[in-house]
Each structure stands twice: as structure tokens, then as C-alpha cells.
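WARN  no MSA supplied for this record, continuing single-sequence
INFO  ligand: S-adenosylmethionine
INFO  echoing inputs
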Amino acid sequence: MPLPLPRHNQPPRMLRLKDGLKDGLGRSITYLRVSVTEQCNLACVYCKPRTGALERAEPPAMSRNEVVQAVQVFTSLGIRKVRLTGGEPLMRRDLETIVAGISPEVEGRVHLTTNGVHLARRARGLRDAGLAGVNVSLDAAERGAFERLTRKDGFSRVMAGIEAARSAGLKTKLNAVVLRGWNEDQILPLARLARAEGIQVRFIEFMPYQGNGWGKDQFMPAEEILRIVQEGLGIPLEEEPVVGLEEGPARIFRLPGGEGKVGVISTLSADFCDRCNRVRLTSRGELKACLFGNRPVDLLEPLRNHATHEDLARLIRQALTEKLDCHPMRRGQVPDLADGMWQVGG
Ligand code: SAM
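INFO  complex generated
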């Protein structure tokens, strides 16, 4: 059952009829990523610094009602798809309730990004709550490499989670961040897994932010990843036409002889900011117009202080006027982020 918005921040009917949310550069913003927690049960080498931030106590996250209320404001303005992320979203026991509250707002287009460790026992419940699909982060197809990258065990549980998500009928994809010197030897095993299982694996370029140990030596561009797949499998890759922004910024290639696909997300080597359709909401209720480079705008305090729908809509529209035309890495800068990816949600 969707949770009703309190009367003071219900959208006026006319606003719901308006066509969409545009940023300052005229890009249509239709996709919202919501981080529901900063907690994570893995400690991936490219995401969480080993010390400091790991020990920092998490500030109180938005309650499930606040998540749903915030999402309702966004959907009333034109957001059509929501992805729940984190931290690790399955660390929240009330995730199913959050999904059930959001799903009707986006006609079922609610998705989840997870490390999959707790997915096996929750996949069916999440589907029943209205979840449409899940992206599982899996940077290695072999246990040893998985443990080196995540600094934890859990490989078998993740594999069981992927299986459970697929048998529950959730649209399931895999995401792998590639770091030279860490898991480039996993590119081919992951591509073979995609082919054998008829699933989509998307390789993501390693992105820098302060404290995550990024260096040019570890960076592997999408073109090189594709070359490794093509030469290793000994087959031509057939690129799928881009159908729309809803499918995200990945370039997708069919693996001949089955349903399997590989994709690449070239955040750095060929950025796609000109096609950006997304904004992010952190678990602290801060709106981030861009992953890197924008001041966050607090929506939680106004929400808690009974701001009207118009006030919240104004804050959101104002934040979107500041959305950047491209990210700082294009100018060769490593973003000076106070927040890590586990706080912003990827
Ligand atoms: N815990 C969940 C998971 O593992 O998918 C959700 C949060 S995680 C921060 C979201 C995504 O961000 C994951 O696919 C992760 O691999 C990606 N990510 C984190 N740090 C990254 C980095 N430095 N470069 C590229 N992707 C990164």
C-alpha cells in the first residue's frame, strides 16, 4: 500500500499534469537514485577507504515514510524511474516496505542496486513488494578475487542471490568495476559467465574520489575491456542500438549464440553527461544534482518541518539549475568529494 503524503506536501493537481523536470541545460530528468543507508557489509577496495570513514558513525538515515514522501515529490515533478541503492540497501529491514510505497508512484519502475549478499532470502519478498529489477555488483567470477576485492567472504551467497533474483522473475543484471592489477583477470570469466547464464554483465570504469586510492595505473578504459572480451572469447561483439535513456548510459553488446550480453560504462573515457537524466538523493535526505561536483541540497529538514509541496519543488528545481555540463574528471581533476560512493549510492 502506498503511504499517503501528508496533506501539507501533497502536489497540486496541475503540477502532476506538467510535463517533466528539466535541468539548467534543458536535459529531461526522469531517473532518481535513492541511497537508503550508508552502511555496507562489504568493504570494496575501490569504494571504502580502509580506515576513517569506515569507522564513522552513520548519521540517522531517512525513515521509510520520509523516503516515500521525498520520492512522491520527485515523481509528481516528472521522475519516472527510481533505483534504491546505498551503502548496502539490503542492510535495511524495511526495504520491502519502502519498495511497496514507491512502486505505485513510478508504475512499477523501481529497481535495486545491491552487493547481493542478503538477496537470496529477500528476492521474492522484494518482487512481491513491487520491485522490477536488480543490479548485482559482482567484480569477480572467482571466489579468491572476490574476497581480495571486497575484503570479505560471501561469494557463494552472492551467487545464490543472483540465482534467487532470476527465479523470482526480477530483471537481473551484473555490474563489475574493473581495476587494473586487481581484477582485469576477471573480465573474461565474467564475460563467460554472461554467455553461459544468458545474463548481462556491465563493466564500469573505475572512478576517482578522494580517499579511494584511484590512480591512472589502475584505470582501465572501456575500449580495452571490450578488446579483452572480444579477443578472449574469439567472437565478434554486436553492439545494440541505444533505445532510450531509460536503459542507462551503458553501451551493450550481444554475445552470439545465446542471451548473454556485455556492456561497458565509460564514465571517464567517453562520458555521457550530455545525455544525463538522473539525480541522486542520499540517505541523509540530500539532493545531489550531479554525482561529482555539486553542493548537496538538504530536503530532509524542510520535509520534517512540513514544507509545502511548492517549497520542496522549488528547492529541487533550483538544485537542477546547477547541474553541471560535464564532470570534473573531464578536466583532468580528481573530485574533491567529502562523500564517498557508499554515501552517494554510485
Ligand atoms: N552496495 C550496493 C552495491 O554494491 O551495488 C550499492 C552501493 S554501491 C556504492 C553502487 C555501485 O557503485 C556499485 O555497482 C559499485 O561497484 C559502484 N562503485 C563504487 N565505487 C566505485 C568507483 N570508485 N568507481 C566505479 N564504480 C564504483
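Residues 13-344 form a domain with the TIM Barrel fold (CATH 3.20.20.70).
INFO  checksum written, moving to next record
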